Amino acid sequence: MSIPVRKKRVSVPDIRACKGGEPLVCLTAYTAPIASILNDRVDVLLVGDSLGMVVYGMDDTLAVTLDMMIAHGRAVVRAATTAFIVVDLPFGSYEASPEQAFHAAAHVMSKTGCQAVKLEGGVEMTDTITFLTARGIPVMAHIGLMPQSFNTTGGFRAQGLSDETATQIEADGAAVEQAGAFSVVVEGTSEPLARRLTENLTIPTIGIGASPACDGQILVTDDVLGLFSSFKPRFVKRFGDIGDAVAMAADAYAEEVKARKFPTLDHCYGVKKES
């Protein structure tokens, strides 16, 4: 399959223009090699704080730092030259005040070169979103299941299953749109709720465990590739088994090393290659 090559980077207006059209293709990226491969195959790359669990083996995302996000954001921006790149603001870096959020977001954008930041929260974050967008920082919102708040919700559980919580999430969606977010991630909600949000909001909804009706979809790349197996939510679909391929390659390497079949003289300096 041929991959169309973009000549310029996807922009905020490009993302907004996808509302109601062809779905946005979004994946996570934490490293330059993966970002380079994904660049022409996706519209949006998210440097998510999920890297704490996927890359660093943490039990949750709460210990992820701003410096960690910046380091991985830099790597992804260097490698992905045309995809729209969003970097998560980690827990504790933006909740205290709009001013705190601005300093964190400005630091992330200036140090990484990303196009936007993502933050979790609905009605309670509207002042912050308004403050950021008024100062030139594009914001992708995140409502529904919010991993940074798992301690208050009793774990990683689907949200919006009751009338009361569904009403709150709908209010969250309307609030972040009104505050100036250019798009919103809808995670782990009931399907009818995510569908209503998509129908009622004028900004693109990006679903993860939400609804096929959303204006885009996002998954963690390591889940898609079959690399991260310790935690598999219902909404994950594996499109590859790279983990098995890595294991097979490592087994083959170990076998040749132990049998002294690798390296051969073809892999050594100062000797003629074997014919």
Plain-language structure description:
It is a single chain. The protein is an alpha/beta fold and 275 residues long. It has two domains: 12-240, Phosphoenolpyruvate-binding domains (TIM Barrel); 242-275, no CATH class. The chain is 39% helix and 14% strand. The chain contains eleven helices and eight strands. The chain has helices at residues 12-16, 32-38, 51-54, 66-79, 98-112, 126-133, 150-153, 163-179, 191-200, 221-225, 242-258, and strands at 24-28, 44-47, 84-88, 116-120, 139-144, 183-187, 205-208, 216-219. Strands 1-2-3-4-5-6-7-8 form an eight-stranded parallel beta barrel, surrounded by five helices. Helix 6 (126-133) links the parallel strand 4 and strand 5. Helix 2 (32-38) packs across helix 4. The protein is globular and about 70 Å long. The model has no long low-confidence stretch (mean pLDDT 94).
Total number of helices:
11
Do you know the CATH topology of the largest domain? TIM Barrel
Largest sheet: 8 strands, parallel, barrel
**How much of the sequence is in beta strands?**
5-15%
Mean pLDDT: 94
Total domain units: 2
Kindly list the characteristics that best describe this protein.
about 280 residues, alpha/beta, TIM Barrel, 2 domains, 8-stranded parallel barrel, 8 strands, globular
